[in-house]
Amino acid sequence: MQAVHFxxxxxxxxxPLETRTEIMTPAGPLLAELVTFHKDGSLSRxxxxxxxxxxxxxxxxxxxxxxxxxxxxxLGTISARLIAASFRPDGTMRxxxxxxxxxxxxxxPAGVLATRIGVSFRPDGSVESVEPARPLTVPTPVGQVRAYxxxxxxxxxxxxxxxxxxxxxxxxxxxxxxxxxxxxxxxRERRFxxxxxxxxxxxxxxxxxxxxxDFTPEAVSVRAAPDAEPVVLPTLDHSFRTSPHLEQFANPFxxxxxxx
Length: 260
Known about the structure:
About 0% of the residues lie in helices and about 50% in strands. The chain is mostly beta strands. The chain folds into two domains: about 1-100, no CATH class; about 135-255, no CATH class.
């Protein structure tokens, strides 16, 4: 039996279940092996499986146990293999985290998008972010950007590489296939280009590193990585345009040769 965890106020936080147990969630009943809770005692995340991967038990082994679940979501009733379903304290759905390899068609402000890894929602049920299953071109405040995050890890679906503002416009995107050209108030042009790195496979090839763009009415922020310090460019005195970058990397996207 795995450990049970509590918050500092004594409220249950993390409950592994000895056998799969039906849990009643705001989205409907769900068989679960692990349940977590918010500090106020409300349901946080429900995990249909809670396997421990090892040299003897792989993701593929665990995947054979993963069965599609049917839930009522802001997208309507869906059936898919899930790692977890997440809820806010008020019971609204926060996100769905999809099983590796699972693809879900999601209606977004940018159209119906094939989505991998996860989708997150606002409290009103509108789509907040998705993880595109393949590179796709989306309109942004700086022009057309080809969205895709090669490094998306799939730990949870709360935050994804294509985000939408409440009005439906794109407010954040990761890309390795688009460069941003910026002209400042003095007329000087700056070019922001996705980086590359030596392949994690250990060979001599190089692979792209996604560049992150975040948009507000006041500024465009450019990050070389999700946790990098942003370069903030005010929209008032800068002009922006985009152009394609490293198109040769488009076809291999979806899975690196050495990825899990």
